[in-house]
Amino acid sequence: MSSPVSVLLRYPGAVARDMSAARDRAIRRRINIAWGLLYFNTMTFVAGTSVLPLPSRVGKGFAQAALPLALLLLLTVNPKIKIRPNVFLCLVSLLVVDAVFTGIQVHRPGTLFRTVRLTEFVLALWLLTPWWGRRDMLLFKCHLRWTYVALGSVFLGFVIAPGHALAFDGRLQGVIWPMVATQVAQYAAVAAGLTVVLWFARHLSGRVALAGIAMSVFILLMAHTRTALIALVAGIVVSGLSLFTSNARVRKAFAAGLVVVSAAVMTAAGFLTTWLARGENTQGIATLTGRTNFWALVLDYPRNRFQELFGFGLSNASVNGLPIDSNWLASYMQEGLFGVAVCAVILAFLFVAMLFHSRGVTRALALFIVAYVLLASFTEDAFTDVSTYMLHLTVAASLLA
Fold it and tell me: Which residues pair with 275 in a beta bridge?
Protein backbone atom coordinates (compact mmCIF):
# COMPACT_ATOMS: atom_id res chain seq x y z
CA MET A 1 0.00 0.00 0.00
CA SER A 2 1.39 3.40 -0.94
CA SER A 3 2.39 5.82 1.78
CA PRO A 4 -0.24 8.54 1.03
CA VAL A 5 -3.03 5.93 1.06
CA SER A 6 -1.83 4.45 4.35
CA VAL A 7 -1.68 7.90 5.93
CA LEU A 8 -5.21 8.59 4.70
CA LEU A 9 -6.47 5.35 6.22
CA ARG A 10 -4.65 5.81 9.52
CA TYR A 11 -5.29 9.51 10.07
CA PRO A 12 -8.41 10.55 8.13
CA GLY A 13 -9.15 13.38 10.54
CA ALA A 14 -5.71 14.92 10.18
CA VAL A 15 -5.87 14.73 6.38
CA ALA A 16 -9.31 16.35 6.39
CA ARG A 17 -8.00 19.15 8.60
CA ASP A 18 -5.03 19.69 6.28
CA MET A 19 -7.32 19.85 3.26
CA SER A 20 -9.63 22.27 5.04
CA ALA A 21 -6.69 24.48 6.03
CA ALA A 22 -5.36 24.46 2.46
CA ARG A 23 -8.78 25.37 1.11
CA ASP A 24 -9.07 28.21 3.65
CA ARG A 25 -5.64 29.56 2.63
CA ALA A 26 -6.67 29.51 -1.03
CA ILE A 27 -9.88 31.38 -0.23
CA ARG A 28 -8.02 33.96 1.84
CA ARG A 29 -5.54 34.53 -1.00
CA ARG A 30 -8.35 35.11 -3.51
CA ILE A 31 -10.18 37.43 -1.13
CA ASN A 32 -6.97 39.40 -0.63
CA ILE A 33 -6.50 39.74 -4.39
CA ALA A 34 -10.15 40.70 -4.88
CA TRP A 35 -9.89 43.33 -2.15
CA GLY A 36 -6.76 44.69 -3.79
CA LEU A 37 -8.66 45.00 -7.08
CA LEU A 38 -11.50 46.84 -5.34
CA TYR A 39 -8.94 49.13 -3.70
CA PHE A 40 -7.22 49.74 -7.03
CA ASN A 41 -10.57 50.61 -8.61
CA THR A 42 -11.00 53.46 -6.11
CA MET A 43 -7.59 54.97 -6.86
CA THR A 44 -8.35 57.82 -9.23
CA PHE A 45 -5.91 58.15 -12.12
CA VAL A 46 -4.66 61.75 -12.34
CA ALA A 47 -3.46 62.46 -15.86
CA GLY A 48 -0.09 64.10 -16.41
CA THR A 49 1.54 63.35 -13.05
CA SER A 50 2.97 59.86 -13.53
CA VAL A 51 6.65 59.23 -14.25
CA LEU A 52 5.57 56.19 -16.26
CA PRO A 53 4.68 56.63 -19.96
CA LEU A 54 1.08 55.62 -19.29
CA PRO A 55 -1.65 57.34 -21.34
CA SER A 56 -4.62 58.60 -19.37
CA ARG A 57 -7.11 56.33 -21.13
CA VAL A 58 -4.95 53.27 -20.47
CA GLY A 59 -4.49 54.12 -16.80
CA LYS A 60 -8.18 54.76 -16.27
CA GLY A 61 -8.98 51.60 -18.21
CA PHE A 62 -6.79 49.52 -15.88
CA ALA A 63 -8.51 50.96 -12.81
CA GLN A 64 -12.01 50.44 -14.21
CA ALA A 65 -11.24 46.88 -15.35
CA ALA A 66 -10.24 45.97 -11.79
CA LEU A 67 -13.86 46.07 -10.59
CA PRO A 68 -15.37 43.39 -12.88
CA LEU A 69 -12.26 41.27 -12.31
CA ALA A 70 -12.79 41.51 -8.56
CA LEU A 71 -16.45 40.59 -9.00
CA LEU A 72 -15.58 37.52 -11.07
CA LEU A 73 -12.93 36.44 -8.56
CA LEU A 74 -15.39 36.78 -5.68
CA LEU A 75 -17.90 34.65 -7.57
CA THR A 76 -15.29 31.87 -7.63
CA VAL A 77 -14.99 32.16 -3.85
CA ASN A 78 -18.72 32.52 -3.25
CA PRO A 79 -20.32 30.71 -6.24
CA LYS A 80 -23.64 30.09 -4.49
CA ILE A 81 -23.88 33.83 -3.72
CA LYS A 82 -24.32 33.36 0.00
CA ILE A 83 -24.70 36.67 1.81
CA ARG A 84 -24.82 37.66 5.44
CA PRO A 85 -27.71 40.06 6.07
CA ASN A 86 -26.57 43.28 7.71
CA VAL A 87 -27.90 46.77 8.20
CA PHE A 88 -24.81 48.56 6.92
CA LEU A 89 -24.90 47.19 3.36
CA CYS A 90 -28.69 47.52 3.27
CA LEU A 91 -28.19 51.23 3.90
CA VAL A 92 -25.43 51.43 1.27
CA SER A 93 -27.75 49.64 -1.15
CA LEU A 94 -30.25 52.48 -0.69
CA LEU A 95 -27.66 54.75 -2.30
CA VAL A 96 -27.63 52.35 -5.26
CA VAL A 97 -31.43 52.45 -5.46
CA ASP A 98 -31.35 56.25 -5.41
CA ALA A 99 -28.66 56.32 -8.12
CA VAL A 100 -30.58 53.92 -10.36
CA PHE A 101 -33.86 55.78 -9.85
CA THR A 102 -32.23 59.11 -10.70
CA GLY A 103 -30.15 57.71 -13.54
CA ILE A 104 -33.30 56.50 -15.30
CA GLN A 105 -34.56 60.07 -15.30
CA VAL A 106 -31.49 61.88 -16.62
CA HIS A 107 -30.29 59.51 -19.42
CA ARG A 108 -26.64 60.67 -19.35
CA PRO A 109 -23.96 58.15 -20.41
CA GLY A 110 -21.60 59.24 -17.63
CA THR A 111 -24.30 58.89 -15.01
CA LEU A 112 -25.28 55.47 -16.36
CA PHE A 113 -21.66 54.28 -16.24
CA ARG A 114 -21.16 55.48 -12.66
CA THR A 115 -24.45 53.92 -11.60
CA VAL A 116 -23.45 50.53 -13.02
CA ARG A 117 -20.05 50.87 -11.37
CA LEU A 118 -21.61 51.62 -7.96
CA THR A 119 -23.98 48.66 -8.37
CA GLU A 120 -21.10 46.30 -9.16
CA PHE A 121 -19.05 47.66 -6.28
CA VAL A 122 -21.80 47.16 -3.70
CA LEU A 123 -22.54 43.70 -5.09
CA ALA A 124 -18.88 42.79 -4.57
CA LEU A 125 -19.13 43.99 -0.96
CA TRP A 126 -22.22 41.80 -0.45
CA LEU A 127 -20.31 38.77 -1.76
CA LEU A 128 -17.69 39.35 0.95
CA THR A 129 -20.16 39.32 3.86
CA PRO A 130 -19.68 35.60 4.73
CA TRP A 131 -16.16 36.57 5.88
CA TRP A 132 -17.27 39.40 8.15
CA GLY A 133 -16.64 39.05 11.86
CA ARG A 134 -13.78 36.55 11.59
CA ARG A 135 -11.42 36.38 14.54
CA ASP A 136 -8.45 36.82 12.25
CA MET A 137 -9.95 40.12 10.97
CA LEU A 138 -9.40 38.99 7.38
CA LEU A 139 -10.92 41.98 5.58
CA PHE A 140 -9.19 44.43 7.90
CA LYS A 141 -5.80 42.84 7.25
CA CYS A 142 -6.41 42.90 3.50
CA HIS A 143 -7.36 46.56 3.71
CA LEU A 144 -4.34 47.59 5.76
CA ARG A 145 -2.02 45.54 3.54
CA TRP A 146 -3.18 47.24 0.33
CA THR A 147 -3.09 50.66 1.99
CA TYR A 148 0.59 50.10 2.72
CA VAL A 149 1.11 48.89 -0.85
CA ALA A 150 -0.32 52.20 -2.10
CA LEU A 151 1.90 54.12 0.33
CA GLY A 152 4.89 52.09 -0.79
CA SER A 153 4.32 53.22 -4.37
CA VAL A 154 4.15 56.84 -3.20
CA PHE A 155 7.38 56.50 -1.20
CA LEU A 156 9.14 54.80 -4.12
CA GLY A 157 8.05 57.61 -6.43
CA PHE A 158 9.45 60.14 -3.97
CA VAL A 159 12.78 58.30 -3.84
CA ILE A 160 13.26 57.97 -7.62
CA ALA A 161 11.76 61.32 -8.67
CA PRO A 162 11.55 63.71 -5.69
CA GLY A 163 11.26 66.82 -7.84
CA HIS A 164 8.33 65.39 -9.76
CA ALA A 165 6.65 64.04 -6.63
CA LEU A 166 6.80 67.49 -4.99
CA ALA A 167 6.00 69.50 -8.11
CA PHE A 168 2.54 70.55 -6.91
CA ASP A 169 3.13 73.37 -4.38
CA GLY A 170 5.76 71.24 -2.65
CA ARG A 171 3.14 68.70 -1.53
CA LEU A 172 3.87 65.03 -2.00
CA GLN A 173 1.77 63.24 -4.60
CA GLY A 174 1.89 59.82 -6.16
CA VAL A 175 3.92 59.55 -9.34
CA ILE A 176 4.20 55.78 -9.84
CA TRP A 177 0.43 55.51 -9.84
CA PRO A 178 -0.64 59.16 -10.04
CA MET A 179 -2.49 60.33 -6.93
CA VAL A 180 -3.23 63.81 -5.63
CA ALA A 181 -1.82 64.97 -2.29
CA THR A 182 -5.13 64.69 -0.44
CA GLN A 183 -5.52 61.08 -1.54
CA VAL A 184 -1.96 60.29 -0.48
CA ALA A 185 -2.58 61.92 2.90
CA GLN A 186 -5.75 59.91 3.41
CA TYR A 187 -3.91 56.61 2.90
CA ALA A 188 -1.04 57.71 5.14
CA ALA A 189 -3.30 58.89 7.97
CA VAL A 190 -5.46 55.76 7.93
CA ALA A 191 -2.43 53.45 7.84
CA ALA A 192 -0.73 55.33 10.68
CA GLY A 193 -3.86 55.41 12.82
CA LEU A 194 -4.72 51.74 12.39
CA THR A 195 -1.11 50.75 13.10
CA VAL A 196 -1.11 52.82 16.29
CA VAL A 197 -4.32 51.13 17.47
CA LEU A 198 -2.87 47.69 16.71
CA TRP A 199 0.21 48.62 18.74
CA PHE A 200 -2.00 49.90 21.58
CA ALA A 201 -3.74 46.51 21.66
CA ARG A 202 -0.39 44.62 21.48
CA HIS A 203 -1.19 43.07 18.10
CA LEU A 204 2.04 44.46 16.62
CA SER A 205 5.58 44.52 17.93
CA GLY A 206 7.19 47.88 18.59
CA ARG A 207 9.67 47.61 15.70
CA VAL A 208 7.08 46.70 13.09
CA ALA A 209 4.70 49.40 14.33
CA LEU A 210 7.48 52.00 14.40
CA ALA A 211 8.48 51.25 10.81
CA GLY A 212 4.91 51.51 9.52
CA ILE A 213 4.07 54.62 11.53
CA ALA A 214 7.33 56.38 10.61
CA MET A 215 6.78 55.91 6.87
CA SER A 216 3.09 56.84 7.07
CA VAL A 217 3.65 59.97 9.15
CA PHE A 218 6.53 61.07 6.90
CA ILE A 219 4.28 60.77 3.85
CA LEU A 220 1.41 62.51 5.66
CA LEU A 221 3.57 65.48 6.63
CA MET A 222 5.03 65.72 3.13
CA ALA A 223 1.51 65.67 1.64
CA HIS A 224 0.72 68.64 3.91
CA THR A 225 -3.02 67.99 4.26
CA ARG A 226 -4.64 69.46 7.36
CA THR A 227 -7.87 67.46 7.16
CA ALA A 228 -6.05 64.13 7.25
CA LEU A 229 -3.78 65.26 10.09
CA ILE A 230 -6.66 66.51 12.26
CA ALA A 231 -8.76 63.43 11.53
CA LEU A 232 -5.79 61.18 12.38
CA VAL A 233 -5.27 62.81 15.79
CA ALA A 234 -8.98 62.77 16.58
CA GLY A 235 -9.32 59.14 15.51
CA ILE A 236 -6.40 58.04 17.69
CA VAL A 237 -7.78 59.92 20.70
CA VAL A 238 -11.26 58.45 20.31
CA SER A 239 -10.07 54.89 19.73
CA GLY A 240 -7.46 55.18 22.48
CA LEU A 241 -10.06 56.30 24.99
CA SER A 242 -12.02 53.11 24.33
CA LEU A 243 -8.97 51.16 25.55
CA PHE A 244 -7.84 53.64 28.20
CA THR A 245 -9.16 51.97 31.34
CA SER A 246 -8.07 48.45 30.42
CA ASN A 247 -4.73 49.07 28.72
CA ALA A 248 -1.68 50.44 30.54
CA ARG A 249 0.17 51.01 27.24
CA VAL A 250 -2.55 53.42 26.11
CA ARG A 251 -2.39 55.37 29.36
CA LYS A 252 1.40 55.69 29.12
CA ALA A 253 1.20 56.68 25.44
CA PHE A 254 -1.42 59.34 26.17
CA ALA A 255 0.67 60.76 29.01
CA ALA A 256 3.78 60.88 26.81
CA GLY A 257 1.77 62.41 23.96
CA LEU A 258 0.41 65.12 26.26
CA VAL A 259 3.94 66.05 27.34
CA VAL A 260 5.19 66.16 23.73
CA VAL A 261 2.23 68.25 22.53
CA SER A 262 2.59 70.68 25.44
CA ALA A 263 6.31 71.11 24.77
CA ALA A 264 5.68 71.60 21.03
CA VAL A 265 3.03 74.25 21.66
CA MET A 266 5.26 76.18 24.05
CA THR A 267 8.44 76.02 21.97
CA ALA A 268 7.29 75.91 18.35
CA ALA A 269 3.83 77.47 18.28
CA GLY A 270 4.81 79.98 15.59
CA PHE A 271 6.33 77.36 13.33
CA LEU A 272 3.32 75.05 13.72
CA THR A 273 0.90 77.87 12.93
CA THR A 274 2.86 78.81 9.82
CA TRP A 275 3.08 75.20 8.68
CA LEU A 276 -0.65 74.63 9.14
CA ALA A 277 -1.49 77.90 7.36
CA ARG A 278 0.34 76.61 4.27
CA GLY A 279 1.01 80.13 3.07
CA GLU A 280 -2.68 81.05 2.94
CA ASN A 281 -4.09 84.31 4.21
CA THR A 282 -6.91 84.60 6.72
CA GLN A 283 -9.57 84.58 4.02
CA GLY A 284 -8.17 81.39 2.48
CA ILE A 285 -8.21 79.62 5.82
CA ALA A 286 -11.72 80.87 6.64
CA THR A 287 -13.06 79.57 3.32
CA LEU A 288 -11.20 76.25 3.70
CA THR A 289 -8.97 76.96 0.71
CA GLY A 290 -11.94 78.30 -1.23
CA ARG A 291 -14.13 75.24 -0.69
CA THR A 292 -16.98 77.23 0.83
CA ASN A 293 -17.24 79.25 -2.39
CA PHE A 294 -17.92 76.03 -4.31
CA TRP A 295 -20.36 74.90 -1.65
CA ALA A 296 -22.39 78.05 -2.16
CA LEU A 297 -22.67 77.15 -5.86
CA VAL A 298 -24.07 73.75 -4.91
CA LEU A 299 -26.68 75.20 -2.58
CA ASP A 300 -27.71 77.90 -5.08
CA TYR A 301 -27.86 75.54 -8.05
CA PRO A 302 -31.39 75.59 -9.57
CA ARG A 303 -33.30 72.36 -8.99
CA ASN A 304 -36.89 71.15 -9.03
CA ARG A 305 -38.59 69.20 -6.27
CA PHE A 306 -37.48 65.80 -7.61
CA GLN A 307 -33.87 66.94 -7.95
CA GLU A 308 -33.96 68.37 -4.43
CA LEU A 309 -35.09 65.02 -3.03
CA PHE A 310 -33.11 62.61 -5.23
CA GLY A 311 -30.39 64.71 -6.88
CA PHE A 312 -29.06 64.93 -10.44
CA GLY A 313 -27.53 61.46 -10.61
CA LEU A 314 -23.95 60.30 -10.07
CA SER A 315 -21.28 62.53 -11.58
CA ASN A 316 -17.68 63.57 -10.98
CA ALA A 317 -18.85 65.51 -7.88
CA SER A 318 -18.33 68.96 -9.36
CA VAL A 319 -20.42 71.99 -10.20
CA ASN A 320 -19.55 74.31 -13.10
CA GLY A 321 -16.28 72.39 -13.43
CA LEU A 322 -15.28 73.05 -9.81
CA PRO A 323 -14.84 70.20 -7.33
CA ILE A 324 -17.32 70.11 -4.44
CA ASP A 325 -14.92 68.52 -1.92
CA SER A 326 -17.55 67.61 0.65
CA ASN A 327 -19.30 64.30 1.07
CA TRP A 328 -22.48 65.94 2.29
CA LEU A 329 -22.80 68.52 -0.46
CA ALA A 330 -21.70 66.04 -3.12
CA SER A 331 -24.38 63.69 -1.84
CA TYR A 332 -26.95 66.50 -1.98
CA MET A 333 -25.92 67.33 -5.54
CA GLN A 334 -25.91 63.75 -6.80
CA GLU A 335 -28.50 61.96 -4.65
CA GLY A 336 -30.47 64.74 -3.04
CA LEU A 337 -31.72 65.00 0.50
CA PHE A 338 -32.43 61.27 0.44
CA GLY A 339 -28.74 60.52 -0.13
CA VAL A 340 -27.69 62.94 2.61
CA ALA A 341 -30.07 61.24 5.04
CA VAL A 342 -28.77 57.77 4.11
CA CYS A 343 -25.14 58.87 4.62
CA ALA A 344 -26.03 60.28 8.05
CA VAL A 345 -27.85 57.09 9.05
CA ILE A 346 -24.88 54.95 7.94
CA LEU A 347 -22.53 56.77 10.31
CA ALA A 348 -25.13 56.86 13.09
CA PHE A 349 -25.70 53.12 12.77
CA LEU A 350 -21.98 52.37 13.02
CA PHE A 351 -21.61 54.52 16.13
CA VAL A 352 -24.63 52.83 17.75
CA ALA A 353 -23.25 49.39 16.82
CA MET A 354 -20.01 50.28 18.58
CA LEU A 355 -21.89 51.16 21.75
CA PHE A 356 -23.22 47.61 21.92
CA HIS A 357 -19.93 45.96 20.92
CA SER A 358 -17.60 44.58 23.56
CA ARG A 359 -14.42 46.50 24.33
CA GLY A 360 -11.33 45.40 22.53
CA VAL A 361 -9.19 45.88 19.48
CA THR A 362 -12.00 45.42 16.94
CA ARG A 363 -14.12 48.18 18.47
CA ALA A 364 -11.08 50.47 18.79
CA LEU A 365 -10.19 49.95 15.12
CA ALA A 366 -13.78 50.58 14.05
CA LEU A 367 -13.90 53.71 16.20
CA PHE A 368 -10.80 55.11 14.55
CA ILE A 369 -12.13 54.42 11.05
CA VAL A 370 -15.58 55.91 11.61
CA ALA A 371 -14.23 58.95 13.47
CA TYR A 372 -11.71 59.57 10.68
CA VAL A 373 -14.30 59.24 7.92
CA LEU A 374 -16.74 61.51 9.77
CA LEU A 375 -14.24 64.35 10.07
CA ALA A 376 -12.83 63.91 6.57
CA SER A 377 -16.32 63.81 5.04
CA PHE A 378 -16.80 67.54 5.62
CA THR A 379 -13.99 68.62 3.29
CA GLU A 380 -13.52 65.61 1.01
CA ASP A 381 -15.70 63.53 -1.29
CA ALA A 382 -16.18 60.40 0.78
CA PHE A 383 -18.64 57.51 0.73
CA THR A 384 -21.52 58.71 -1.45
CA ASP A 385 -20.03 56.94 -4.47
CA VAL A 386 -17.38 54.29 -5.12
CA SER A 387 -14.39 55.33 -3.02
CA THR A 388 -11.76 54.18 -0.58
CA TYR A 389 -13.88 55.78 2.13
CA MET A 390 -16.62 53.27 1.40
CA LEU A 391 -14.04 50.51 1.80
CA HIS A 392 -12.97 52.05 5.12
CA LEU A 393 -16.54 51.95 6.44
CA THR A 394 -17.08 48.42 5.13
CA VAL A 395 -14.05 47.28 7.10
CA ALA A 396 -15.41 49.02 10.22
CA ALA A 397 -18.78 47.28 9.77
CA SER A 398 -17.08 43.90 9.29
CA LEU A 399 -15.12 44.37 12.52
CA LEU A 400 -18.36 44.99 14.40
CA ALA A 401 -20.18 41.98 12.92
Answer: none
